[in-house]
Amino acid sequence: MQTKRFQKILFLTKFNFKRDWFKLSLWALVLIALFVGVAGKFTSLYGSKAGIDQIVKTLKTPAMVSLFGKMPQGPYTSADVFAAEMTVFMAIFAIIMNYYFVIKNTRGEEESGVLELIQAHAVGRMSHLAAVLIESFVLNFGIGLIYAIGLQFAGLSGTDTNGNFLLGIGLGATGFMFATVAAVVAQLSDNSRSATILAYLIFAVMYIARMITDVTHPKYTWFVPLGWVEKFSTYQDNNWLPVLFMLVVSTILIILAFYLNGHRDIGSGLIATRPGRKSASFFLRGPISLLWRLNRISILVWFFGIMILGMTYGSIFNTIGDILKTNPMFSQLLDTKAIDTANLLLIKQFIGVLIIVFAVLALIPGISLINYLKTGENKGYLEIIHSKPTSRFRLFSSVTLVAFITSIAVLFAGILGLYLGGNAVMDQPLKFDLFWNCFIGYLSPTLIMLGISTCLLGWIPKLVSLNYGYLIVGFFVKYFGKLLKLPDWTEKITPFGFIDKVPVHNFDVATFGWQLLIAVILIVVGYLGYRRRDLISG
Q1: In Å, how far are 25, 144, 454 from 28, measured between CA atoms?
Q2: If phi over 0 gives left and psi between -120 and 50 gives alpha, with beta otherwise, what is residue 69?
Q3: N or C: which terminus of the chain carries fewer CB neighbours within 10 A?
Q4: 484: helix, strand or coil
């Protein structure tokens, strides 16, 4: 009986690899190129003792600790700096990759009816889930192994074989652990959208818990599975215990996923969706209200989730501001007013680093909503609307409007959270104008990124996901550009690169104007393409 439950598991695994080979290869190539490429460049960036001391001083500030985690004790080499900067960052990318593949291949295939067709043949009840997990295992540990081999040949000074394989395999174990998290939530929800929201909620809670414990009590980070990546202590203690913990948790979650899978019907979830009304509400008469109805939960989760993240970051403003106050040398050299001014500058620089994070996060739900015009067509969800006298302009403008409002609202929520969280702990409250400048400054590049999505949707809908890749490039350049000493011109490859260090400096009205004009042009061009092209059918 047990054997029949896993019948044809190898066949389904090979089928999954054959179907997903392009996407799997693309993800693997990008991650490996990023990881090994940065490793190969790092010795030239931070090869001297003076350079290492300078970057370590930066990485030990509370702001950097909250972003990258707490560094182990020195002395430090180029390899230690590389591990400190790249570990959490690469772990986050691994989590995003695994959430995408596992939820799409489990709950997504149930939703589309593909799984029902598969299970109509002589395959085991558990074979499909097992094949997805095997695919994920091979993907994560395959990438991890190449990471390790790549580090061996990257010529990064200060590395050792044990540390290279710990970092590579450890990142693979991190990705696989979150793949099993996705496998469990895919059993709980009865649709892929809710499963994705639930999975990212778990990730967000872990990220915030990791950040708080890193800044306040680093020992408590052991209680946060996401924080285990920092406990590798790569090239220092080379601690394999977190990897063991990850494998144990993954095993438990796999057993739980199979148990839940065996106690539900195909197409259903353990968290049932509440049935709707027998007749539609009076307000449910147009595309805007329909889109809000369909996406209201995810929009609210994004709004309040980002606000909480902002409040969490804001809650460490006082810690950042105390850096100069508690330094005896600065106390002797500067008076109280000068120290307060310097503290404010530090906080502004910290906010400047965070704003790009909030802008990128705010764009994810907006781009996703615009892309719904393509996915909804593919899955036939929009057939009813297209069969009614609803013009393409009305549908396009409704989706675009909801997407733009969502991204703008989420960006504002993150900045508002920073303001509320910061002023809750600061002795001298920060003015709201400072945060408002951040919001206005990053509004125009946010609108351009959404405009690019509308263009892709209108003219080349098969490539709508490209904007996510462009978004990642923009985030990487702005977030890591200074640390990796990238040339200044690289910042200009994204619209975010034209924002002049807001809020350290005021936003540039002229830049805001021409970026807004470009965004409007992109939207109009996108609509012209959408009006002309044929509808996509599944």
Answers
A1: 5, 10, 28
A2: left
A3: N
A4: coil
Q: Is the Cβ–Cβ distance between 45 and 485 less than 8 Å?
A: yes
- Residues 6 or more apart whose Cβ sits within 8 Å of residue 472: none
CA distance 38 to 52: 16
First to last CA, the chain: 37
Rg over alpha carbons for the chain, rounded to the nearest Å, is: 24
Residue 332 φ/ψ, nearest 5 degrees = -75, -35
Q: Got the DSSP string for 454-482?
A: HHHHHH-GGGTTHHHHHHHHHHHHHHHTT
Predicted model pTM: 0.77
- Burial code (b: 16+ CB inside 10 Å, e: under 16) for 164-175 equals bbbbbbbbbbbb
Q: How far apart are CA 227 and CA 214, in angstroms?
A: 9
Q: Give kind and range of the element (H or E) at residue 360.
A: helix 336-379
CA distance 405 to 117: 39
Q: Which residues of 446-469 are buried (b: 16+ CB within 10 A; e: fewer)?
A: bbbbbbbbbbbbbeebeebeebbe
Per-residue pLDDT of the chain (538 residues; tens, 9 = 90+): 455 788 889 999 999 999 999 889 989 998 998 888 888 877 777 777 777 887 787 777 766 777 778 887 777 888 888 888 889 889 988 998 999 999 999 988 888 788 888 888 888 888 999 999 999 999 999 999 999 999 998 888 888 999 999 999 999 999 999 999 999 999 998 888 888 889 988 998 998 888 888 877 888 889 999 999 989 989 888 999 999 999 999 999 999 999 999 888 877 777 777 666 777 777 677 888 888 888 888 899 889 888 988 887 887 777 665 555 555 555 555 566 666 677 777 788 778 878 888 999 899 999 999 998 888 887 777 877 877 888 889 999 999 999 999 999 999 999 999 899 888 878 788 889 889 989 999 999 999 999 999 999 999 988 888 888 888 888 888 877 776 677 888 888 889 988 877 887 887 899 999 999 999 999 999 999 999 887 765 5
| 3-state DSSP of 102-171 | HHHHHHHHHHHCHHHHHHCCCCCCCHHHHHHHHHHHHHHHHHHHHHHHHHHHHCCCCCCHHHHHHHHHHH
Q: What phi, psi does 535 have (nearest 5°)?
A: -70, 150
Compute how many other C-beta atoms are within 10 angstroms of the C-beta atom of residue 273: 11
- Number of C-beta neighbours around residue 250 at 10 A: 24
Alpha-helix runs per DSSP H in 380-465: 383-387, 392-425, 432-459
Closest CA to 363 of 519, 149, 507: 519
Tell which residue, 59, 86, 76, 68, has the closest CA to residue 147.
Answer: 86
For Cα atoms 243, 248, 252, give the angle at the middle one, nearest 5 degrees: 145
Q: Is 33 exposed, middle or buried (0-12, 13-18, 19+ CB in 10 A)?
A: exposed
